[in-house]
Amino acid sequence: MGTKEQLKEERDRIVKGLEETYKKLVEYKKQKKSPMIVVRNGKIEAVDPHEILPTTLYKRSAG
């Protein structure tokens, strides 16, 4: 297996971990009834966690 394939596999594992972490964070915020702090259009906002999608997908570039 070449370096390029190893890097792709590692990147895919990292992205999967980020997706799982996001999902757990949203669930936690809902349980604690605590707002999610996000940046929208360069502004910091507190958002009700029930308005946030429970999952997200990170874009994975080809290559």
From TrEMBL:
It comes from the Bacteria. The lineage of its organism: Bacteria, Pseudomonadati, Bacteroidota, Cytophagia, Cytophagales. This is Uncharacterized protein.
